Amino acid sequence: MSDPETHFGYQRVSEREKAARVRGVFDSVAGRYDLMNDLMSLGMHRLWKRIAVFIAGARPGDRVLDLAGGSGDLTRLLSRDVGAQGEVVILDINRSMLDVGRDRLLDAGALDNVRFVQADAEALPFPDRSFNLITMAFGLRNVTRKERALAEMYRVLKPSGTAQVLEFSQVSSPVLSKIYDAYSFKLLPRLGQLIAKDEASYRYLAESIRMHPPQEELAAMMRAAGLERCRYLNLLGGVVALHSGMRL
């Protein structure tokens, strides 16, 4: 049987090729990932992540899974919330990103209750009902089969637990949308070339945002995966949306 097709940015590729290309993107940008995030969002990505962690409300003793945890921004905040009796598992499919996260968390003194796992979000290596909270920040749009990742989130979530997805989404204002498009497709690739020496990867990132399901569609996908009380909060006019759902 032929490998099914999916999208890599605006291109149509096989699912296997997409996984390899996404891996290549993050291998390429890992060393400058945080600097580029600060430049791309004018530092606002840190505020968005803090909002997500605050709303998530992790409690002392909780077991938390930070999917596509990358450089460890959410893990560092969550590790403080769960305390010495809790645990944060930071999972990423990309070894380069996990290495960056390990170094940053070591520098922050936040490794005592953190565990690192390299794995695919579509096939989580954990038993059913393992986590009180699952977070995923700016990672879902890079997953080949998003419905599988959402189903896996539901599977490993404990009853009364929350799954949270922070992701770029659909801008609500036509005026803001035009400004955002000009920034994404003209300035962002140039920044990628100047700072990370990789224009193509940042052009893909801009395209991947446009191909990601908009707010209502993603909420419907979360419900289809079994999650309930699904809702979302638009940030910066929908540039970013924070989705959440519960396993009841």
TL;DR?
The protein has about 250 residues and is α/β, with parallel strands linked by helices. It has a single domain, classed as Rossmann fold (3-Layer(aba) Sandwich), CATH 3.40.50. It has nine helices and nine strands.
Overall description:
- This protein is of the alpha/beta class and 248 residues long.
- The chain has a single domain (5-172, 202-247), classed as 3-Layer(aba) Sandwich (Rossmann fold).
- Helix content is 47%, strand content 24%.
- The chain contains nine helices and nine strands.
- It has helices at residues 15-29, 33-41, 44-56, 73-82, 95-107, 146-156, 174-196, 199-211, 215-224; strands spanning 5-8, 11-14, 63-67, 87-92, 114-118, 131-137, 157-168, 228-235, 240-247.
- The strands form two sheets. A seven-stranded mixed beta sheet has the order 5-4-3-6-7-9-8, with helices on both faces.
- Helix 2 (33-41) runs antiparallel to helix 7 and helix 7 (174-196) packs antiparallel against helix 8 (199-211).
- The protein starts with a strand and ends with a strand.
- The mean pLDDT is 94.
**Mean pLDDT across all residues, rounded?**
94
Query: Which residues sit in consecutive blocks of at least 5 with pLDDT less than 50?
Result: none
In what range is the share of β-strand residues? 15-25%
**Form type:** globular
User: In the residues, how many domains can be counted?
Assistant: 1
H/E topology pattern:
EEHHHEHEHEEHEHHHEE
Find the CATH topology. Answer: Rossmann fold
- Classify the secondary structure makeup into a structural class: alpha/beta
What's the helix count?
A: 9
What is the C-level CATH assignment? Alpha Beta
Radius of gyration, in angstroms, nearest whole number:
17 Å
Span from first to last CA? Answer: 38 Å
Q: Would you report the number of β strands?
A: 9
What would you give as the CATH superfamily?
Vaccinia Virus protein VP39
